[in-house]
């Protein structure tokens, strides 16, 4: 099934001067990791909010065009049902902690409590998520006293425990250090392996190139590029919208410009490593 | 159909108020704490009540006041006798908010009089009724001194509390006014009384309805 | 921490909650009944000895619950800040026939002292009971008990989130205040100088806290906060035990007896 189908979609926030989205036609398949990139205020967050139903149910405004989520028009969804079906994690680690629970274990269980999951099942699910994310060391800590990176992991854990088939993730690493960012991407990769549909707005393009199946590039409220990650990131047009290509792609281009092109343009670090290893005549398995 | 959809939305969303109440309570406490820290001769412990009343309505404001006094009485139970004042501040702020008092600085400043009347006059009445005119708090010593100088006990209560409340409410309503001025529009549209401060009628006040109209 | 340790934590949530102390483990609702009954006994008496005795009993209960020292500190502070002033004002200002110590225009009278003792001990028995309740019942346990009898989880949210918001906002405000000091904005000096420091510290902090409610609403919605169905609870609060029930019944009997006794003037 199609996760989200947008036809001629425009959106202007109430009282805003400019539209946030203009004439969007986009189709996102289920079971994939869809990356969304673009400069600040290019419409990434608005697109995420729309797929999550936060627009227009929470952020009011003028919505035009047709939005179909999992085969059902957006406005026919009951908001509570939609938020059960589509989980979400966003950038601010501090506002995603409920502030009403005393341990991380209890914090992770909060969504399950609200869903009315029986206690024994709830405990099992929390245990399993804790193990999946490797956060055993903090289960007894007070979630209100954790670092930003730890809070973000707990936020992921709360959402993953609820086991929604779709997760919309908006700039999850923008307030985190590189180490915590890597950890968050590993979590997202794990979700992908378990067959979840993921929409991920992110500016760390190196990481996105590594994990995403498709990339959507947004600029001034419109979708300017959309397609399989390799096609989009490897395209010459990619850099035109202020998005910086991955370091390794840039490296490949520079080599090509210097008259020494690689066999194929790398978009992932591993690919670049392989290509360059071949070039310098040494096996990748040598060490 | 449209109205039932709207009801569904209200059930699911549009409930920012429930998240504003704890913030209002925290503002009451922190305002009071910082006033103590800066050794200011005023309480400044009803900023949250009036702020939430002015932006979310009288009932949420009253709840902020009630719970604030409730939490205070965990460590100082006599405070609870005065909860009704904080509740009244919230209700009155809701009414004032609705009629647009907090939109202009001079009307805001005038609202000090009714607030101080509640705080000072009704506060004195509670002291007289509940504590026979001899409650504790900032004013108690003043009341004691005035009585010792030969003033009637009831008169002493009013004489001590009214000026103190005027002094307290001037900075309180001014900070409320300043904060409301600073609230971004996108937040205001989600608050029950937000439209009062948005000034112009919302050009896009339509309920969320998807149309199939194409973009120009 | 190993997975075994997590399993141990998980197991603890499977068991009914216990705080390892018979007094602390009393059901919050039975606790409300018990403490209220004792307060009623204190208030029903016409003298000051019974309320004083009940106040002492509260201290004893706090010690049994293992919260003795901190409770004693709280209650002594209250006696000094509230009790002493209430007593002194009454002793000085209530007019009476039997003058004990003449002090110029006013006088300490026997009636004043009696009135003061009676009123002070009555107010303090209420204070003692309320502070005792919150010293031995955590807000979390209380809200859990209330949710059990049908109070909405939204009410729980508002109360519990308020405490966290007070902590968080207080910390932020102090950080900003310190930063202002470091930038040379006066926080000492005369009252006008200090008052001027208040606005730039607090207005932005309060505004940020208000703006953050938007994200909080979205985050909690994602945690099914708005789910209309029945909610369950991870914490396993024991239902009222036989001991709790006996305590509730006993409290009702004691309170009724005290009111009757008070009316008939037994004590």
| Rg measurement of chain B, Å | 20 Å
Given as residue ranges, the uncertain stretches of chain C (5+ residues, pLDDT < 50) are: none
Report the span from N to C terminus of chain C: 60 Å
Give a short account of the largest sheet of chain B: none
Q: What this model shows, in words?
A:
The complex is a heterotrimer of chains A (287), B (216) and C (267). Chain A is built from eleven helices and ten strands. The longest helix of chain A is centred in the middle third of the chain and has 16 residues. In chain A, the strands form two sheets. Chain A has a six-stranded mixed sheet, with helices on both faces. Chain A has a four-stranded antiparallel sheet with strand order 2-1-4-5. Chain A is globular, with a radius of gyration of 20 Å. Helix content of chain A is 39%, strand content 23%. Chain A has a domain of 177 residues: P-loop containing nucleotide triphosphate hydrolases (Rossmann fold, 3-Layer(aba) Sandwich), CATH 3.40.50.300. Chain B is mainly α and 216 residues long. Chain B has a domain of 137 residues. The longest helix of chain B has 30 residues. Chain C starts with a helix and ends with a helix. Chain C folds into two domains: 164 residues, no CATH class; 73 residues, no CATH class. With 267 residues, chain C is mainly alpha-helical. Chain C has a two-stranded antiparallel ribbon. Classes of the chains: A alpha/beta (287), B mainly alpha (216), C mainly alpha (267). Chains in contact: A-B, A-C, B-C.
What's this model, at a glance?
The complex is a heterotrimer of chains A (287), B (216) and C (267). With 216 residues, chain B is mainly α.
How are the elements arranged and paired?
The complex is a heterotrimer of chains A (287), B (216) and C (267).
Chain A: E1 2-13, E2 21-29, E3 33-38, H1 44-52, H2 54-57, E4 61-69, E5 72-73, H3 79-85, E6 86-89, H4 104-115, H5 119-133, H6 148-162, E7 166-170, H7 178-193, E8 197-201, H8 205-211, E9 214-219, E10 222-228, H9 229-234, H10 247-257, H11 269-279
Parallel strand pairs in A: 3-8, 3-9, 6-7, 7-8
Antiparallel strand pairs in A: 1-2, 1-4, 4-5, 9-10
Helix pairs in contact in A: 4-5, 4-6, 5-6, 6-7
Chain B: H1 2-12, H2 17-37, H3 47-56, H4 58-75, H5 83-98, H6 105-110, H7 112-131, H8 140-148, H9 153-182, H10 185-188, H11 194-198
Helix pairs in contact in B: 2-3, 2-4, 3-4, 3-5, 3-9, 4-5, 5-7, 7-9, 8-9
Chain C: H1 3-14, H2 28-44, H3 49-64, H4 68-93, E1 99-103, E2 106-109, H5 110-136, H6 139-148, H7 153-182, H8 191-222, H9 242-264
Antiparallel strand pairs in C: 1-2
Helix pairs in contact in C: 2-3, 2-5, 2-9, 3-4, 3-5, 4-5, 6-7, 7-8
């Amino acid at each position: 099934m199609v996760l989200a189908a947008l036809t001629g979609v425009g959106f202007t926030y109430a009282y805003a001067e400019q539209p946030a989205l203009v004439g969007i036609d986009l189709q996102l398949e289920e079971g994939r990791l869809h990356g969304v990139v673009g400069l600040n205020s290019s419409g990434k967050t608005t697109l995420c909010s729309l797929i999550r139903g936060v627009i227009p149910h929470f952020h009011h405004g003028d919505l035009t065009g047709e939005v179909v989520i999992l085969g059902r028009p957006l406005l026919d969804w009951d908001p509570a049902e939609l938020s059960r079906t589509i989980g979400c994690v966003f950038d601010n680690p501090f506002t995603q902690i409920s502030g009403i629970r005393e341990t991380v274990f209890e914090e992770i269980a909060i969504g399950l409590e609200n869903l009315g999951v029986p206690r024994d099942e709830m405990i099992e699910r929390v245990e399993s998520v804790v193990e999946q994310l490797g956060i055993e060391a903090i289960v007894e800590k007070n979630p209100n006293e954790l670092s930003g990176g730890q809070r973000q992991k707990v936020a992921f854990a709360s959402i993953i425990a609820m086991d929604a088939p779709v997760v919309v993730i908006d700039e999850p690493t923008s307030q985190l250090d590189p180490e915590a960012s890597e950890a968050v991407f590993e979590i997202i990769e794990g979700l992908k392996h378990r067959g979840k549909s993921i929409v991920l707005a992110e500016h760390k393009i190196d990481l996105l190139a590594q994990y995403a199946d498709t990339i959507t590039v947004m600029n001034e409220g419109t979708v300017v590029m959309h397609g399989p990650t390799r096609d989009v990131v490897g395209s010459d047009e990619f850099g035109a919208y202020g998005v910086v290509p991955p370091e390794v792609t840039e490296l490949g281009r520079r080599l090509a410009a210097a008259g020494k092109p690689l066999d194929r343009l790398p978009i992932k670090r591993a690919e670049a490593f392989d290509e360059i290893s071949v070039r310098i005549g040494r096996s990748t398995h040598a060490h | 159909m449209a109205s039932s959809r709207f009801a569904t939305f209200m059930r699911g969303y549009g409930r920012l108020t429930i998240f504003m109440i704890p913030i209002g309570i925290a503002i009451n406490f922190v305002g009071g704490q910082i006033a103590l820290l800066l050794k200011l001769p005023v309480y400044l412990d009803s900023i949250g009540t009036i702020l939430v009343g002015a932006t979310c309505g009288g009932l949420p404001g009253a709840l902020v006041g009630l719970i604030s006094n409730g939490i205070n009485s965990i460590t100082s139970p006599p405070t609870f006798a005065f909860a009704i004042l904080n509740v009244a501040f919230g209700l009155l702020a809701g009414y004032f908010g609705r009629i647009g008092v907090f939109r202009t600085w001079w009307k805001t400043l005038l609202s000090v009089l009714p607030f101080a009347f509640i705080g000072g006059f009704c506060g004195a009445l509670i002291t007289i009724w509940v504590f026979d005119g001899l409650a504790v708090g900032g004013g108690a010593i003043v009341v004691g001194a005035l009585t010792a100088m030969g003033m009637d006990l009831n008169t002493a209560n009013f004489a001590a509390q009214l000026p103190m409340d005027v002094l307290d409410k001037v900075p309180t309503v001014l900070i409320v006014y300043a904060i409301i001025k600073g609230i971004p529009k996108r937040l205001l549209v989600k608050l029950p009384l937000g439209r009062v401060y948005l000034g112009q009628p919302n050009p896009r006040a339509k309920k969320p309805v998807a149309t199939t109209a194409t973009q120009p | 921490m190993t997975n075994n340790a997590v399993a141990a934590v998980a197991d603890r949530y499977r068991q009914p909650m216990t705080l390892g102390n018979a007094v602390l483990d009393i059901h919050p609702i039975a606790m409300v009944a018990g403490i209220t009954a004792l307060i009623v006994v204190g208030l029903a008496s016409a003298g000051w000895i019974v309320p004083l005795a009940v106040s002492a009993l509260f201290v004893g209960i706090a010690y049994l619950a293992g919260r003795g020292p901190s409770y004693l500190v709280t209650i002594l502070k209250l006696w000094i800040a509230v009790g002493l002033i209430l007593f002194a004002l009454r002793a000085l200002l209530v007019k009476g026939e039997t003058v004990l110590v003449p002090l110029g225009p006013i006088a300490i009278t026997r009636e004043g002292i009696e009135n003061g003792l009676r009123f002070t001990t009555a107010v303090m028995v209420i204070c003692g009971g309320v502070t005792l309740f919150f010293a031995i019942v955590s807000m979390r346990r209380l809200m859990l008990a209330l949710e059990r009898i049908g109070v909405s989880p939204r009410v729980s949210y508002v109360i519990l989130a308020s405490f966290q918001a007070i902590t968080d906002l207080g910390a932020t405000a102090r950080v900003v205040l310190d930063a202002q000091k470091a930038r040379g904005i006066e926080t000492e000096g005369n009252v006008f100088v200090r008052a001027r420091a208040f606005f730039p510290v607090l207005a932005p902090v309060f505004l940020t806290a208000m703006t953050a409610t938007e994200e909080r609403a979205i985050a909690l919605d994602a945690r099914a906060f708005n789910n209309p169905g029945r909610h369950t609870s991870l914490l396993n609060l024991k239902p009222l035990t036989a001991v709790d029930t006996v305590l509730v019944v006993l409290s009702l009997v004691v309170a009724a007896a005290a009111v009757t006794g008070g009316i008939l003037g037994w004590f």
